[in-house]
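To: structure subgroup
Subject: Chain for Friday's discussion

All,

I'm putting the inputs and outputs inline so they're searchable in the archive.
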Amino acid sequence: MRNILIMGDPLPILNILSSDRHFLITSQIEAQSLGDHVSALFSEIYAIDTPETFEATCFEQRMPEIVSIAQALVGNHGSIDGIVSTHEHTVLPSALLREEFGVSGIQPTTALLCRDKIMMRKAMNITTTKVPFLDTDVVSYLEFKQFLAEHRRIIIKPSRQAASFGIEVISDQQGYNRDLPTQSIVEPFIDLPIIHLDGYVVSGELRFMTASQSVNTCFSYTNLGGVLGSVIITDKEIYHLCLDLALITVKNLGINDSVFHIECFKSDEGLIFLEAAARYGGGGINQLVKYTTGVSLSEAAYIIESGDSRRDNLPQLTTPPQRSVAMINFALPEDAQTFFGWKIKEMGTLPQILQVVAPEPGTLLKRDEIERFSAALRIYIVADEDGQALDHVREMEKTVEVIYESQF
């Protein structure tokens, strides 16, 4: 029997677990929420202490403890045969463990390129549309001020965070009169449509990819609330532009055996690379892809990273899907509110609704500081083409209302 170590959240992969022996390293917060039926699936569960707010480096900061846990696991049960990462914050720790214990899969060099935005941008600027950037650890304050004056609106991102955490948008009008943050990347603010690419690579071959256009931005959703949507792209020309960028990205970053999530801007001249991750996308993207193709990327991640024999038979998709599925998320309230329900106000043509994900009436809701893409309401719809689906999402943004008891 093989030994498979799961890092992070086991819930998205429970339905695909093989008959092998499984071990789990997770946070104390996640461990406390596991029911007995979930815990029974694991030979041992190890919980590490992590912050009660979002921190993408939380597992990286606990590497000595995580290595000690893995050493004890090997001592008691034998070698580790597969290590599966389930979150952004477990990508690099999983790679470090693979290197330490001789396990195949994403290694630290690739994981760092997928975690560190400065290293990632350097690797990608070789062959894709170049976007100027600054590294706050090496740039002078004068160079930064000149960059701000030249581009007029800029964005400062922590180089190893995720989920739009810690991002600042600065304009030349408001200025910037404090010390620059360390370990951050500075880029021009680009106001263009965002596309995300989601798929997987097996043995160096890109086997599967969907492309989706975002409605609004992750930054606005996680920091300001409102609505965040995604619409599966069925247009052949745009899809193949996306496929070309995905092929370049996985090659430059060394993604050989992993799922991926890539973000880019769509301009009149083509696509502009934004960032990439060696994990599946959050905020309902996994279910969006599954509704469109029947494929669960979280389950594909388990099959690929565990070395499961099913990896060679994973579905292939390198052409646009036939129908456009869309998703729309309505943000949780900033202050605690009791959920009552939801309604659609006047709308021209109602779309075909595939699923509504909503809490039970009476549930107390509040913006989640850890699961930053949680939603008060999530709706999946389907249309014949992405243009129609996009119109539906934009109309639903205006006509769907989440109702709280305080409104009565």
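Points worth raising on Friday:
The chain has a mean pLDDT of 95.
Residues 194-407 form a domain with the D-amino Acid Aminotransferase; Chain A, domain 1 fold (CATH 3.30.470.20).

D.
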